[in-house]
Amino acid sequence: MKIGLVDSGIGLLPAAAAVRRLRPDADLVLAADPQSMPWGPRSAEDVADKALACARHAAAHGLDALVVACNTASVHALPALRAAFEPLLPVIGTVPAVKPAAAAHRAVAIWATPATTGSDYQRRLIAEFGNGAEVTEVPCPGLADAVQSADTEAVAAAVKAAAVLTPRGVGAVVLGCTHYELVADRIGAAVPGAVLYGSADAVAAQALRRIDALGPVPDGRTGTLEVILGGRLSALPPEALEYSEGAALAATSVTA
Fold it and tell me: Of the residues 10, 37, 70, 174, which is catalytic?
């Protein structure tokens, strides 16, 4: 079984690590284009082109499922990706966890990139799944880039700025960018008492469900890991290893 994951950069690590936890035997192909970050300010057509290029590089390695582990790409590229690869290759998108957050809490904040905050897409999610909760949209300028570069000081500054915009007493913070899940501990510390809602676990489970791979895990086999950056086979970038998800993938994978 081989699962590919696509993102602009290392935001795909949480979903990849979640797949690895559920299926240690799964072979993973991580395809990103960090030189083109950030994708948020790009046009929908440009995002679709970037995501399709990454997806084609991953699909060339013989996948059973493709995960679009990026909120921006899921908004702008999912139709094009599904048209290109389905039904032969299931394509699974990423949706911010507004629904479970609003089902459990009356006050919710959504942390997202400035391009996503206030967008028609996010407003539709709130209208459809907000469940009458008081929802605050919080832009987080620079946070995804700081996470990508593993710049601890820049992450701290961006998290602090977003926390100031987050109403006191919110019950939940939805992590509306996959990069943010890599610094969930720092976000949680900045918004004490709030429950954080990411997408990685649900996306990983859905990918495995689509290929009927949620059953027993074979004993003794460790999945391989292939990394494609900008179309070229690579190692995990050093920045990825600064996060627990990246370190766990490196430690629990066989290099393909």
Answer: 70
The answer on 192 and 125 residing in a single domain is yes
pTM above 0.90, yes or no: yes
Query: Is residue 194 domain-shared with residue 205, that is, in the same domain?
Result: no
Q: How far apart are the first and last CA of the chain?
A: 14
**Residue 177 a catalytic site member:** yes
Catalytic-role residue among 52, 98, 177, 202: 177
Collapsing DSSP to helix, strand or coil, 4 comes out as strand
**Contact in structure between 144 and 177 (CB atoms under 8 Å):** yes
Residue 54: active-site member? no
Same domain, 213 and 175: no
**pLDDT tens for each residue of 193-246:** 999 999 999 999 999 999 987 777 777 788 999 999 999 999 999 999 999 999
Domain that holds residue 174: 98-198
CA distance 120 to 77: 16
